[in-house]
Amino acid sequence: MKVTDVKATQTVGLERRRFLQGMLLAPLAAAGGAAEAGGWTTGFGPYEVGTSCMLAHKSTTAPMEHYLIGRLQPQGALYVDQVLQDRQASLVIDVKVPQDWPYAGRLAGLSLPVVLTVYYPTPASNPRPEYTFPEEHGWYRLPHMQRPGEAPLFADDGARYPLIVHSGGQNTHGLWHIWKLQHLASLGYVVIDVYHGDGRTPGFEESVALRTLAVRAALDHVLAHPLYAAHIDAARIGASGSSAGGLTVLSLMGGLNPAQPGRSLADERIKAGFGTVPFAGFGKAAAQSMGLPPGAIPNFWNFGFDFAGLATVKRPWFAVSGELDRNVPATDVLAAARATGGPAWVVEMKGQTHAMDEAAQAETRGWEAAFFDAHLRDDASAKALLRRGANPAGPKAVGRMVLQAA
Question: Which of 230-239, 294-303, 335-344, 374-383 has the lowest mean pLDDT?
Fold first, then answer.
């Protein structure tokens, strides 16, 4: 990321590293119980979950995390596609970066591989074992994972499921998000997770540019895939962004950059967006805390310090913020949601930083399920949970609703 002030550039670099301290470092968290009454579902839903193939070699030349997050080095970039045992069996796409793509920088004109994982509802009788990804901790387990030559086994082979695409935090990787994605799939969604590989890009601005292209390409690929397309309802697509993924989702929902007048990155297939501690670019609170000078212009896709560029976001947006979050200030999350041109909700988690505890994560899962059920399934009970006066998390909730659509 480049801004007009040297001090700001150094501060932004620190903030980039802090994105790693996101709320999604809980692959061993507890399930949180079954679905509660009235449609409130913080726990897993009725379905077992299957996953696409991510069979990998054990890394011997570099730490596995360097491949998962991506890493630049003199002899070439590291990325997770290089450790996959069978690229044909895995979901690996080539993403072309157009010469004129905003802030593409040194990526302009290049094609970069992007790895996807698909989570989907599968029958309880699915005999495929879980797969422990071969990294040093052994934390990451993909449920009922397909092996080479195996097709996905859907819970209802004749059903078309709504789809959610997920964009994770800056310098995170898809395996960090297993719990969140498995939760959504257990509720009857097909979920695509995108391995952005931010660390292999020359700078923050290039990683932001690649992210929007990667999500678009991921949707293109899965919606045309011979094994997945027939099981997806392309008219019911949502997007979920964690931390820096919030910027990706809001961009794809139509957020405009005042420095790029007339240019939109919108993907009309996305009908609703959800953000967990979502970075929406630099608002006034973040700019002030980082010491950015008046008139500084972030050199990446940003919506303006007053978030005026979000007025063109007409589709529903739901954000969960942390009251004490210094990376993505709660005041900016609220200001960004208020600036959108469509229905918006914000829940602020009391006492929470960018790394939320399990109680706050469980409530976030409940809100996310209710939001997508309301807007991708037109579910009446889920809509009731979003109405004014509703308090589905109960009197002891960590979160409080600070913005609610009429």
Answer: 294-303
- Picking from 41, 357, 393, 378, the residue whose alpha carbon sits closest to that of residue 185 is 41
Report how far residue 31's alpha carbon sits from residue 44's, in angstroms, rounded to the nearest whole number.
Answer: 7
Residue 380 lies in a domain: yes
Residue 39: what pLDDT? Answer: 67
Residue-number span of the structural domain to which 190 is assigned: 6-403
At 38 the pLDDT is 56
14 pLDDT above the threshold of 50: no
Alpha-carbon span 80 to 92, nearest angstrom:
10
Q: pLDDT tens digit string along 71-111? A: 999 989 999 999 999 999 999 999 999 999 999 999 999 99
* 1 part of a folded domain: no
- Which pair of structure tokens corresponds to residue 294? 């008046």
Amino acid (1-letter code) at residue 217: A
Full-model pTM: 0.91
Residues 262-283 pLDDT 10s = 999 999 999 999 999 999 998 8
Residue 114 C-beta-side C-alpha neighbours within 13 Å? 31
* 318 SS3 class: strand
251: which 2 tokens?
Answer: 């961009």
> Is residue 156 helix, strand or coil?
coil
259 belongs to a structural domain: yes
CB 88 within 8 A of CB 52: no
> Which one-letter amino acid corresponds to residue 387?
R
Q: Which amino acid is at 136?
A: E
Q: How would residue 28 be classed by pLDDT, with cut points 50, 70 and 90?
A: very low
What is the distance between the alpha carbons of residues 56 and 267, in angstroms, rounded to a whole number? 32
Overall domain count for the chain: 1
**Measured between alpha carbons, how far is 162 from 35 in angstroms, rounded to an integer?**
19
* CATH number, position 128: 3.40.50.1820
Q: Which residues does 359 contact at the CB level (< 8 Å), separation at least 6?
A: 398
Q: Distance (Å, rounded) from C-alpha 98 to C-alpha 111?
A: 9
Please state the length of the chain. 406
Give the orientation angle of helix 358-376 with respect to helix 178-186, to 10 degrees.
40
